[in-house]
Design a protein that fits this description.
This protein is mostly helical and 248 residues long. The chain is built from 11 helices and no strands. The termini are far apart.
Length: 248
């Protein structure tokens, strides 16, 4: 009898985990679809729905992570046109991830996402910009020590370095090689698994295509932009980039 109870308990736990993973995967798919299709209204609806669930008091870490991810995507979409909304979204992302990291300071994915939100939040504050960038670097460094082959870790490190390096410099070359490494790691990881998180593939492929384009490799650029669209056919930024490339 005890053995049967143990088996029943284990089965129920596995079923609960599978249901949670499926829900997380579905949420991630909705967030990414809205972001890639630049549907700000849908993203804001997701944020409001998830916020309501979190405020109800029954939120688990996965739900908080999904809310933070949705807020991050809102910030990226409205960044240039609505600075106050973007700042609020990135700030919300940071705050939602704090309880996760208080419970588990070694959560690589929470560290990576919070780093990205801190880095973007720094753009909106001259007074606190240096502190926020420092926190972003600290979180990303911690994630890199824990999981040096995590594709999102390597991708954010590469894009940060590319943003700071001048074209033609050794630093730029090194950052480009790091982006190439991130793309290879993304190729080895699933973009469709129900396990969360699994985001970043389409953006990394697009950024790599852009880097190849700036280096004069038109065929290589087209290949990777098309790879981005295979992963996310509705990715408007990739569609625009490909259209621009085809006009040349």
């Amino acid at each position: 009898m005890p053995r049967l109870q143990h088996l029943l308990s284990t089965t129920l736990c596995l079923l609960a985990w599978a249901a949670s993973a499926q829900q997380g995967g579905d949420l991630q798919a909705q967030i990414l679809y809205a972001f890639h299709s630049e549907d700000t209204n849908q993203l804001n609806t997701l944020v409001q729905t998830l916020s309501t669930q979190v405020q109800a008091g029954g939120a688990d870490n996965d739900l908080r992570y999904q809310l933070a991810h949705a807020q991050y995507r809102v910030g990226l979409l409205v960044d240039a046109k609505h600075s106050h909304e973007a700042e609020a979204a990135f700030s919300g992302c940071v705050e939602q991830l704090k309880p996760l990291l208080q419970q588990n300071a070694d959560s690589v994915e929470a560290l990576v996402l919070q780093s990205a939100c801190y880095a973007n939040l720094a753009k909106f504050s001259r007074l606190e910009g240096m502190l926020l960038r420092s926190r972003a670097a600290e979180r990303l460094s911690a994630a890199a020590k824990l999981a040096p082959r995590n594709p999102r870790v390597v991708y954010l490190e590469a894009t940060d370095a590319l943003g700071r390096a001048k074209p033609g410099t050794p630093e730029n070359k090194k950052a480009y090689e790091e982006l190439q490494h991130a793309v290879q790691l993304f190729e080895q990881s699933s973009a469709t698994s129900i396990e969360v998180p699994g985001w970043g593939h389409a953006e990394a492929y697009l950024d790599f295509g852009r880097q190849l384009q700036t280096r004069g490799d038109v065929l290589g650029a087209r290949n990777w932009i098309e790879q981005s669209l295979i992963v996310a056919p509705n990715f408007k930024a990739a569609q625009r980039q490909l259209a621009t490339l085809m006009q040349r």
